[in-house]
Amino acid sequence: MLVIYNSLTKQKTLFTPIEPGKVRLYVCGMTVYDHCHIGHARVMVVFDTVVRYLRHLGYEVIYVRNITDIDDKIIHRAQENREDITQLTQRFIQAMYQDTDALGVLRPDLEPRATEFIPQILAMIQRLLDNHYAYLTEQGDICYAVNRFQDYGKLSGKHLEELRAGERVEINTTKQDPLDFVLWKAAKPGEPNWQSPWGPGRPGWHIECSAMSTHCLGNHFDIHGGGMDLQFPHHENEIAQSEGATGEPFVNLWMHNGFVRINEEKMSKSLGNFFTVREVLQRYAPEVIRYFILTSHYRSPLNYSEQNLELARQALTRLYTALRGLSILGPGFFPMAESPYQQSFLAAMDDDFNTPEALAVLFDLAKEINRLKNTDPNQANQRGQELSHLAHILGLLQTDPEQFFQQGQAVEEIEQLITDRNIARQQRNWAEADRIRDYLKAQGIVLEDSGQQTTWRKI
RNA sequence: GGCUGAGUGGCAGAGUGGCUAUGCAGCGGCCUGCAAAGCCGUUGACGUCGGUUCAAUUCCGGCCUCAGCCUCCA
Known about the structure:
Four Helix Bundle (Hemerythrin (Met), subunit A); four-stranded antiparallel sheet; RNA-binding; alpha/beta; 15 strands
């Protein structure tokens, strides 16, 4: 029985899809004006894991993750670069795919882009105007009238009065209420724009997600996700827009993942303390980054540090070591019916996607495999199969162990040296054998002798 | 100031009203030419002050500290 924490009710509740057996899920994706950083990687990996698990449970999942390809930051960046906007966004969309593919993030089923949904956006704004949730300002913008929406603040636990008290003074505004937000921005000279009944302009940030999610998944769908920082105002505004326009409940369950932190501080663009995925990939295998993300529960903070990445590398090494030398058929094969490991794993994942606990089960399994390797190779293979099967749900352990250990090293040279060393060992020339081993160790290659065989791995 | 969330052993990080989380590191042993890996055993913890209870790290309350949102942000 899958239980998920709902940001809307601030409680864990039994997950019940609107339509039995089907899950409709929307996640706020990237604004494509720069490379993915580790914070983006976390959203991608977390919800990829959610989708993988839902599918494992047998749900038919429609996973939608949008791309924001028009907004202020994109326009500014394009101006800075003296680059065409489409060229800029295309470039970073490609870069995003490189990063997410590396991390084992499966592509969403639908990936709507704001610029491709202008008609739907205009239609929704028109409905909001018709329903008196929106108004035209003197500047020609369309704004959402926050006080018209009864439940405004229900997601973030905020009240209009309190928000107003802390409001910063905005100058030159023609809004009726400082908390009102823009649905449609009238075009300024030189800015990209689209035709609308209210003149040329472009969509505000929040409206695209309302238009795209309801268009792709229907007015009322199961799960909406994103980073914690989107809870307010972005998701709050999405609710106001969608429910205001459709008159139906928008989303049953809101999931928000925690931040990546550096030195007890949020990793963010504005603080400038971020690492891009491609930077980190230069030093760590992609799977290490994925593992690292899954070591902490998705709602907890994730502390980024070189040391923690190193811990992740070592932990993953232990799992791959257990798999080493076994014959694994692939994640689809899993002959065992009743298994205490599988049971614990599923129980952990059923409890709001508790990946740290699920990973702990993988280590229990690894220990069992290591024991069995000497006593019952057949059983060891079976458990190895199980390990691979369960890890697959998390998107882990899907490469060949030797490949993981070798990581693009000059394999032939190393194996020649190992052969040389083993000849020396046969001749009981320990000095020479140790010299070769130390030489390789200095290059980060560790040798392991077992019986007649010598294996190696890159640290 | 308002609203969230968190404080667990050397580090990372789950969890539980009484029973070993897990990984890395440490200690003792097995294995090994010596190692490495692996296996067996083992040390070590729940911010603080009260309350509830036979029993609290786990429930309740106060306090302290930290992070986040309230402005673009995953």
